Amino acid sequence: MPEKIRPSIGKIEGMLGRRYGHPPWTASRPLMDVLVETILSQNTSDSNSHRAFLALKKKYPGWEALAGAQTGSIARTIRSGGLENIKSRRIKDLVSFILGKRGKAGLEFLKKMPREAAYRYLLAIKGVGPKTAACTLLFGAGIPVYPVDTHIYRVSSRLGWVKRKEDRESFQERFRKLVPDKMVYPLHLNLIEHGRRICHPRKPECLDCCLNKACNWKEKPHESVH
DNA sequence: ATCCTGGACG
DNA sequence: CGTCCAGGAT
């Protein structure tokens, strides 16, 4: 029974594409930039994390300088993003590690590795979990891994794609294999967009939802709202 | 003035 | 499961 998921993925992807457009894959950025920005975005709103990223990039234009910086001054630089004490530590350690190991603070070598190996390499870094590792590879290298953030997890749950008791990481691993490579990027982006605009955590706007017909979420507000 | 949101780790 | 944080929404 829970194996009707596969066909519905293509259907949902199409519906979202018609509603929000088919986002083109934009030119890849340095993987280290993407990784740092993604760490800053953990448990942090886009506007806050992006502001912090710009400040950090401005202060340490080549990431190498982070290795010799005081965590305190890194923390002050990214303070507007929140969680600066953990994140400054983690970013400094990560850059120092790569720099020490590879001689430069870059991650482009990941592009030459098999998908799984690159993913596991990132996962092994402290402060890099499944979502961050996947985002780095998808946005930095166009490698079709499927990051599951809180929006995707929520919307996917309502769509019936998430099994009972299945956590984010398990879902990310399993679902990845069900999504055709070329759908990974647009589906990821459009599900997030949909989660933000319509399928809110608290009060989803099911009446304005382009997926309403395809969604069997049980707690859907009733049609007659008057 | 409180409430809410957002990943990874100890 | 508690902790880490700021800024925007209510």
UniProtKB/TrEMBL annotation:
InterPro entries documented for this protein: DNA_glycosylase (IPR011257), HhH-GPD_domain (IPR003265), HhH_base_excis_C (IPR023170)
Ranges for domain HhH-GPD: 40-197
SMART domains: ENDO3c
Family annotation (Pfam families): HhH-GPD
A single BP term in Gene Ontology: base-excision repair
Coiled coil: none
GO molecular function, one term: catalytic activity
Protein name: HhH-GPD domain-containing protein
